[in-house]
Amino acid sequence: MKNTLTTRAKSIRLFAFSFVSSILLASSSSCLFAFEESCLKKEILIAHRGMSEMYPENTLAAYKAAVENGFSFECDVYMTKDARIFSFHDPDLKRIAGIDKRCADCTWDEVKNLDVGSWMDKKWKDERPVTFEQILSLARDGRIIEIDVKMGPEIVPHIKKAVSQQTNATPKNIVFASAREDTIKALREQMSDFTAWMGVTCRKGWSRQDPPRPVEDALRIVRASKANGVALQFDSVLITADYIKTLKNAGYAVNVWTIDSPEEAHLAASRGADTVTSNCPNKLLKFRH
User: How confident is the model at residue 39 (pLDDT cuts 50, 70, 90)?
Assistant: First the structure.
């Protein structure tokens, strides 16, 4: 009899726990949906290398898809040895175009006719490297183009010249970013009207075994670069609301990259990130509980 009563008591406790848990879960989902509506808006999403989940990265097709869908977009730029700036992420052409040569060692004639789409799918075989001038022509007020400068300060006078020769791209609709402190310093010195984000990793290196980067270290890097914003690698455990708040209280806009998980994107937005960079911004907006 005693064992029977004990079993029934356990069953009642288990039922009560399950019932309360279901209420809490429903409440949590409701709250998450609420902050999805209030925090993760289209205007804070930046398409990483264009709409790169569906189109070849850093191509005109990827950039135009972002523009047509109403998103800001991020692009990467290098300069050839004859001073033509074009969009490319890697320091060499091997992964995208199958040529084992550094971008900075090429002439524009060597680069301009490369197939930069077939690596993803043969249907993109006609995609060619995008010039900096083409990127600037896509600028529109109400969204931004984030230009990630992959080279040292030697590229900055050429960026400044190209921007000065057109009127479409302005400090209202383009921002610069770089992981190089010397490049950010040069951008801030030579193009002071424009925003420049210093790229910072969430760890003291690229390996998950590297120690976490304290927010004080991130602040030191950003201050030393003279940046007026930070492009911060996101980690849901390491980059807390307090971490982001500390950076913002110091006067820096905070962009987080690169988030393709809807749950993590909502989390980053709820923790105060000003912008969220993603390969698939459409998917983040379509996510519903």
Answer: confident
**65 and 102 belong to one structural domain:** yes
Given a cut of 80, whether residue 66 has pLDDT beyond it is: yes
pLDDT digits (tens, 9 = 90+) for 131-141: 999 999 999 99
DSSP labels, 164-225: HT-SS--TTTEEEEES-HHHHHHHHHH-TTSEEEEEE-SBSSSSTTSPB--HHHHHHHHHHH
Cβ atoms < 10 Å from Cβ of 128:
15
Three-class secondary structure of residue 153 per DSSP: helix
Closest CA to 196 of 244, 233, 148, 161: 148
- Please report, for residues 84, 160, 275, the alpha-carbon distance to residue 71 in angstroms, rounded to integers and kept in the order given: 27, 25, 11
Per-residue model confidence as pLDDT tens digits over 246-277? 999 999 999 999 999 999 999 999 999 999 99
For 119-173, list the strands marked E by DSSP.
145-149
Torsion 281-253-219-79 (CA) sign = positive
Q: Go through 85-103 and write b for each residue having 16 or more CB atoms within 10 A of its CB, e for each that does not.
A: bbbbbbebbeebbeeeeeb
Cα separation, 180 vs 119, in Å, equals 28
128 pLDDT more than 60: yes
Domain that holds residue 251: 40-286
52 vs 93: CA distance, rounded Å: 18
- Kindly state whether residues 194 and 207 are assigned to the same domain: yes
Tally of domains within the chain: 2
Instruction: Tell me if 63 sits within 8 A of 138, measured CB to CB.
Output: yes
Residues 22, 78, single domain; the answer is no
Q: Are residues 82 and 219 in the same domain?
A: yes
Question: In Å, how far from its chain's centre is CA 278?
Answer: 6
pTM here? 0.87
